[in-house]
Design brief:
Helices cover about 35% and strands about 20% of the residues. The chain is α/β, with parallel strands linked by helices. The strands form three sheets. Strands 9, 10, 11, 12, 13 and 14 form a six-stranded mixed β-sheet that branches.
Length: about 325
């Protein structure tokens, strides 16, 4: 059984189409006379003659995006963690859905077909696989494929040309609203998210100009960080902080010890991904890990009180939880 998405989503970049941000989608007339909806998904035009009734949501972003669009009740299957800090309505829908896999990066073609979903919406499950060939194969079996826009970087040759990660989130919500006939709900959700982001920006003024390093502490392997194409970097910029790795043209990478020590930021974002079975499941765990990692021994910032900001990775992923994330960051910084 071949995996469609090996590896971690943390290695992807915030890219979307080969020629930049294309229009979100169009409407037309289906063969049966109904209104057809076309959505641009990572440079592919995906046309729906009727709204899907069964959705396989893969990863932490798709469920929240669909709920924001007013289409959460269409989620029939879910592949991903239950450790995601979903808001209550989304959590209830995910728990009600049939669980296809606990790991959103371990979804096979057979799993998708067995779900009998009309559409698969999720992360870059096609990394290492030709997306056009896979999409065609799935469509021949009766299932369409949509990729969460923030993960389109898993597809070679795509670029946002500087598109903002929050705008990609709003775009997905509006697209799903059009697809499921819930545009009014989607528009209202986007407006609320935009207002919340604006309020978070206005809340924080005391840390403007400070430097910060987003450091990811994995369960295994070396310390990772996030470059200028990451959503956490955009969250920092929105709050007046400067990501010391903003000039790195990647979403995720593993810096050398020399690079880490040489930056000496004012703040460190201690990022972690709770799985339920690792040694970094809580805010306290990640702070302890950062302060005991041998490669960070020379980084004075991690040993300063109030200089380490623990951050659950899910709050920096390309979905509505990123809005919760920017609020959380602003709240913690304003209290420090």
């Amino acid at each position: 059984m071949r995996k469609l998405r090996p590896g971690l989503a943390l290695t992807t970049a915030l890219l979307i189409t080969a020629t930049g941000c294309t229009p979100a989608g169009t409407t037309g007339t289906a063969k049966n006379g109904s209104t057809a909806i076309t959505i641009n998904s990572c440079g592919r035009d995906v046309t729906f003659d009727t709204p899907p009734k069964r959705i396989l949501a893969i990863g932490s972003e798709a469920p929240s995006l669909l709920v924001a669009a007013g289409a959460g009740d269409k989620i029939t299957h879910y592949a991903g963690s239950l450790k995601v800090p979903f808001e209550q309505d989304t959590k209830a829908l995910v728990e009600r859905a049939e669980r296809v896999s606990e790991d959103s990066h371990n979804v096979s073609y057979e799993m998708i077909l067995n779900s009998k979903a009309d559409v698969v919406i999720g992360t870059d499950i096609t990394k290492g696989v030709d997306i056009n060939a896979l999409a065609k194969r799935l469509e021949q079996a009766g299932t369409k494929l949509l990729t969460v826009s923030g993960y389109c970087g898993g597809i070679p040759g795509r670029s946002t040309n500087g598109a903002n990660g929050f705008d990609l989130i709003y775009q997905d919500v509006n697209n799903y609203g059009r697809l499921f006939g819930t545009s009014q709900k989607a528009t209202e959700s986007v407006k609320r998210m935009q207002d919340r982001v604006t309020a978070a920006k206005e809340r924080l003024t005391t840390h403007t100009g400070k430097t910060a390093a987003p450091l990811y502490v994995p369960a295994k392997g070396g310390i990772g960080s996030y470059g200028g194409q990451s959503l956490v970097s955009e969250q920092m910029t929105a709050l007046g902080l400067k990501n010391v790795f903003a000039d790195v043209p990647k979403r995720y990478f593993e810096p050398s010890t020399e690079e880490l020590i040489g930056k000496e930021p004012d703040l460190v974002f201690g990022m972690y991904l709770p799985t339920g079975s690792s040694n970094t499941e809580t805010d306290e765990d990640v702070v302890k890990q950062l302060r005991t990692r041998p490669e960070l021994k020379g980084l004075a910032t991690v040993h300063k009180d109030g200089a380490v900001l623990p951050l659950n990775y899910f709050y920096t992923s390309p979905g509505p939880l990123a809005v919760d994330g920017i609020e959380l960051i602003a709240s913690r910084l304003s209290a420090s």
